[in-house]
Task: structure prediction
Amino acid sequence: MLTFAAEGSSQGKLEINGHSEPVSYELIVAREEDDASQVRIRLNASRDWLLKQGFKGDAVLVRSNGSRIAVRRDGVLDVHSSVCVTLEGYDGTLRGVDEVSDAYPELKH
Result:
């Protein structure tokens, strides 16, 4: 069972096909009973900018520390979609509070 552990937010860049755009993103950490943690990364981007870059469902968030996280949106994106598009990614490779804090210093515990 997952339980809420921490949250935070920061600034980064969204990259698609060699183009980038500044974005804000939020992090939410859930901890499992075995002390493994899953970090959900969520951001909003402009539909028009995504379409102009040839967005096909996947992009990369570059955090301020330079680490890169794949983010995606399921479903078709076109001019009839909402003007604000939510993209999400997950990092489920972390164990323990220290490893999560080291990997994501923008979290508030």
